[in-house]
Amino acid sequence: MSTISADNAARTEARTFRSRFRLIETLIGPDLGEPAKGEASRSINFGWVSALCLVVAAGLLLVVAGQGAGRRGEGAASLLFWSGVILVVVPTTFRISWPMVARGERLFLLFLLAGGLFYYKSVYAPTSFSDHDEFLHWIATDYLTTAGRLFASNPLLDVGPDYPGLQILTSAIVEMTGLPVFVAGTLLLAVLRCVFVGALFLLFESITGSARLSAIACLVYMGCSTYVQFTSKFSYESLGIVLCLLGFAIEAASRNRDDVSRLRAAVLIVVLLAGLAVTHHLSATYAIIYFVAIAILEVLRRDASRRDVTIAAVLALFAVALPLAWMGVRGNPVVNYLGPVIEGGLEALLQRLDSLSDTTRPTDPLGIPPQPLGTRLTTLVAVLLLALGLATGFFRSLALAVKAAPSSGWKPIAKIFERRWRDSRSLFLTVLAFGFPIAMAFRLTVGGWEIGNRMGTFVFFGVGLVVAVSLVHFWQGPAPRGWRRVLPASALAVIVMAGVTASSLNPIRGPYRAGADSESMEPMAIQAARWTREWLGVGNGFIADRVNRLLLAGYGQQDVRVDVVDGVATARIYEAEQLEGDNLYALARSDIDFLLVDMRLSQSRPVFGFYFEPWDSNREALLPEALLKFDNVDGVVRIYDNGWIRIYDVRGLHEPL
């Protein structure tokens, strides 16, 4: 009896193991399944299109009302604002991801959603630039339009003058139209948003052959934290990533064309790569990674033709050579600019991993205020949904690269090991999705946050493809009904909403807050900066805190400095309770003409943890005595005072001590 019982227990355990294995295989296995058919014969439903246009317009009105309420400090601001965002995102996302929708309708609604999200970003500051990086490029563009000269030094962004593509394009629009730089830049960004979405859709469609899958992949990409804000601001990456993506899309769309068409496409891609080389260093790096990876995979692929290998190799060669040639002409500022960021990020990540195994060691505080609970939960749920989509879509996306038949088991994976895949682009983007957990790990550290954020821009090309394959070929299936329609669409809506919530700490414009970049830029400080241009002239040597420094450079056209002299940071001059000793000597031997003091820096702690530079160790409010000390220094004269902001003439210190 005991032997029989043992045999039964063993069989039961074996059946349990097999059932669990089949469940796991069903979840993560490579079986594609048949997608829903009949979409090609569908026509655009103009009733849905019109209704969604009205819904998005109503949502944007609520967003505007929420921004206005936030500026007035009203409690209803959050309710109005986030209700509007939900109206913009959720209904449009549902319709785009719904089965049996015409290709043209999906594409139009993608443009509608992209336009709505761009307006959402723009209405935060509808009449002027407000982001830190936008000011840096506004200064360079304004100088180009007025002085007509490239490569002017920019102490706030050393690497900026060597990548003038955005400034050249914007200044051309200014010259042709007579519009101000802000208006011309905003129009350019609106066009770039549309081009980006169109190129992204065509890239995925060329790879997958499915408009539905491509539209869903675009929605997933909109869940990237850099989509809504970072790559839609007036900065060189906004143009660089579009040039980069256009090259990807053209290369993918031309792979099955005749020789003449492929040659023309290759020439166009080289032109785009040349423009990219002088526009943005990191986007050029993305292009290098992509085209070199495609060339390597084409060389490894057994069935690749000589034409495919040759074209891939030539494009990879130009992708590498053009940025290197440009850096050879202009020097190599990128290493000095990105090197410390990468080194600091890797060090921060290693420290965080080390702290996980040491429970007695405190983790690094981020030094930034937390978001509201609702936005943090949205972001967290979206990350979990993306992880689930990647887990259930990875092997299916590999099977798509092989062009496997439905329900073919693990044979497509074996073909990959045999180097018999059909599409190197799909294979590379699938592998690229592995960068998602790495980017998330970097974002959990102070020093590595910027690396993780920048990685997401590129990594989400792969994440979008893999998650879309998971939704179409597994979660929705060939005949989606009931929960198979609603739950995937709901998950996509959460992912897109997370792209909004993760894009900024506080998207609602409120009253002035010290040390908060965009929220610190208000009319009184702007008027003080304009006063300097009107009464002091342009080009004076100025020092100030981080925010006022930007305003002085943009509105006042002053020659702002990050350091007083080499080795003496501006923060030292402001934080010291007395201007004496080395600080006095450094200011006296510098070529600084004026300094600006904002007394509001003594009223509260900086929101982002610093007033001058991110690496400052002092995260407390400055002492009033430290800011008032300039009134008691011989040779320093107060020439402007509006109650909070004071400007001092320090040229008297330059006389021999």
From TrEMBL:
<feature type="transmembrane region" description="Helical">
    <location>
        <begin position="486"/>
        <end position="505"/>
    </location>
</feature>
<feature type="transmembrane region" description="Helical">
    <location>
        <begin position="236"/>
        <end position="254"/>
    </location>
</feature>
<feature type="transmembrane region" description="Helical">
    <location>
        <begin position="309"/>
        <end position="329"/>
    </location>
</feature>
<feature type="transmembrane region" description="Helical">
    <location>
        <begin position="284"/>
        <end position="300"/>
    </location>
</feature>
<keyword id="KW-1133">Transmembrane helix</keyword>
<feature type="transmembrane region" description="Helical">
    <location>
        <begin position="426"/>
        <end position="449"/>
    </location>
</feature>
<feature type="transmembrane region" description="Helical">
    <location>
        <begin position="75"/>
        <end position="94"/>
    </location>
</feature>
<feature type="transmembrane region" description="Helical">
    <location>
        <begin position="181"/>
        <end position="204"/>
    </location>
</feature>
<keyword id="KW-0812">Transmembrane</keyword>
<feature type="transmembrane region" description="Helical">
    <location>
        <begin position="211"/>
        <end position="230"/>
    </location>
</feature>
<protein>
    <recommendedName>
        <fullName>Dolichyl-phosphate-mannose-protein mannosyltransferase</fullName>
    </recommendedName>
</protein>
<keyword id="KW-0472">Membrane</keyword>
<feature type="transmembrane region" description="Helical">
    <location>
        <begin position="380"/>
        <end position="405"/>
    </location>
</feature>
<feature type="transmembrane region" description="Helical">
    <location>
        <begin position="46"/>
        <end position="69"/>
    </location>
</feature>
<feature type="transmembrane region" description="Helical">
    <location>
        <begin position="261"/>
        <end position="278"/>
    </location>
</feature>
<feature type="transmembrane region" description="Helical">
    <location>
        <begin position="106"/>
        <end position="124"/>
    </location>
</feature>
<feature type="transmembrane region" description="Helical">
    <location>
        <begin position="455"/>
        <end position="474"/>
    </location>
</feature>
